[in-house]
Structures are given as structure tokens and as C-alpha cells.
Specification:
Chain lengths: 116, 112
């Protein structure tokens, strides 16, 4: 069964520093990949998605992610962290077998802390 | 206008009670979902409806019953609430398939 692993449940960076949040998937066939952000007491908001077009995907708020098939990874990056980026980040996949239903399988989430 | 709205936002009740959570979307989407987020923030799909037809039914106790009166609404009814049901329940909608899902703000259910 498809699974998603986010390495690092907590990541702490200084304001202005590079943000790198890691995500690996298990499927041998590249799935549809998503990054969502959850601010406190809110629902999830889509940051970006990969659907087999360009391997480097740009999202909202300056985030981007690169799909690497050889590493089965879809890591999220942002060149310069802002205080407002502090939130919970989720990587999620829909594999091709579930593509008709859109069933999302989520990683465990990574809490991003941004220090002044 | 809120795209995906859930009511209530908070629900505090006692073990053994029956409660419902309502969800409505005004995006014109065909597919709606219920997710459960536990205390460790792990998210898991529970149910999904496409045009009022159940298409995802994960391993969820029979005490949980979704109902979709039309494609803009998906309600969740829970019978005989247990302590382990305490969680945040999220509703989401999408055009269907692998398209991105839009989430509501969640309903925080606390069982006393």
C-alpha cells in the first residue's frame, strides 16, 4: 500500500534562512503529490501539486518542490523563511489506483518553527 | 463566502451521546470527503461521496454514518460516542479524481 514519510516531525529555522521539508513516497509508479499547510485552528490549504508535468513545481507564498523519481522524493523548499510560515506542513499522495476517487494518503506532518 | 463550511466548529459532549457534523460547499464540486485528525495531527480519510454516491468507505466503526442529501452537502452522524472519537474532523471537496481538495476549518469534537 502507498505510504508517505515526512522526515523530521519538527523543523526549526531562523527568519530569512532556507526552509527544507522532506517527503518520500513508497510507490514505484509516480503518484500525484501535494503539499498542504495548516495554520493553527484552520483547515488545510494547498501549497502546490505535482501531476507529472514539470518536475520543479512552484506554489504559493514562495514555496516550491522538486519531484525526483530516482529518490522517490518531493521535498518542499523556500529560500527565505518568514515568521508567517510557522505552521504544520503535510505531504500527501494519491496513487494512480485511487486516482478516480482522489483518496489522499498523508504523511505524519512537519511542524515548522521560525525563530526571529 | 466560505468555500467549505462546517458546523459546529466545536462540539463538546458526553460518552454515549449521538451527534452530527454538517458540511456544505459552494464550489460546485462533485466530490466531498471526511477526514479525521487525531491528537498527533495525523490525518486519515474516512469517507467520500461523488454526486451522492459513496466511493470511499475506510475501516471506520459502524457508529459513523455519512449522509449526502445532495452533492453540495455531506454530513457525518456519530452514534454512541466514545472517548477515542475525540479528534478534529475535516470536510473537504474537490472536482473529483486527483484534483486538489479544498478543506473546511474543521470541527473539534471533545468527548467528556
Amino acid at each position: 500500500a502507498q505510504s508517505v514519510t515526512q522526515l523530521g516531525s519538527h523543523v526549526s529555522v531562523s527568519e530569512g534562512a532556507l526552509v527544507l521539508l522532506r517527503c518520500n513516497y513508497s510507490s514505484s509508479v509516480p503518484p500525484y503529490l501535494f503539499w498542504y499547510v495548516q495554520y493553527p485552528n484552520q483547515g488545510l490549504q494547498l501549497l502546490l501539486k505535482y501531476t507529472s508535468a514539470a518536475t520543479l513545481v512552484k506554489g504559493i507564498n514562495g514555496f516550491e518542490a522538486e519531484f525526483k523519481k530516482s529518490e522517490t522524493s518531493f521535498h518542499l523548499t523556500k529560500p527565505s523563511a518568514h515568521m508567517s510560515d510557522a505552521a504544520e506542513y503535510f505531504c500527501a499522495v494519491t496513487d494512480h489506483g485511487s486516482s478516480n476517487t482522489g483518496k489522499l494518503i498523508f504523511g505524519q506532518g512537519t511542524t515548522l518553527q521560525v525563530k526571529p | 463566502d466560505t468555500a467549505v463550511s462546517q458546523t459546529p466548529k466545536y462540539l463538546v459532549t458526553q460518552m454515549g451521546n449521538d451527534k452530527s457534523i454538517k458540511c456544505e460547499q459552494n464550489l460546485g464540486h462533485d466530490t466531498m470527503y471526511w477526514y479525521k485528525q487525531d491528537s498527533k495531527k495525523f490525518l486519515k480519510i474516512m469517507f467520500s461521496y461523488n454526486n451522492k454516491e459513496l466511493i470511499i468507505n475506510e475501516t471506520v466503526p459502524n457508529r459513523f454514518s455519512p449522509k449526502s442529501p445532495d452533492k453540495a452537502h455531506l454530513n457525518l452522524h456519530i452514534n454512541s460516542l466514545e472517548l477515542g472519537d475525540s479528534a478534529v474532523y475535516f470536510c473537504a471537496s474537490s472536482p473529483g479524481g486527483p484534483k486538489p481538495q479544498h478543506f473546511g476549518d474543521g470541527t473539534r469534537l471533545s468527548i467528556l
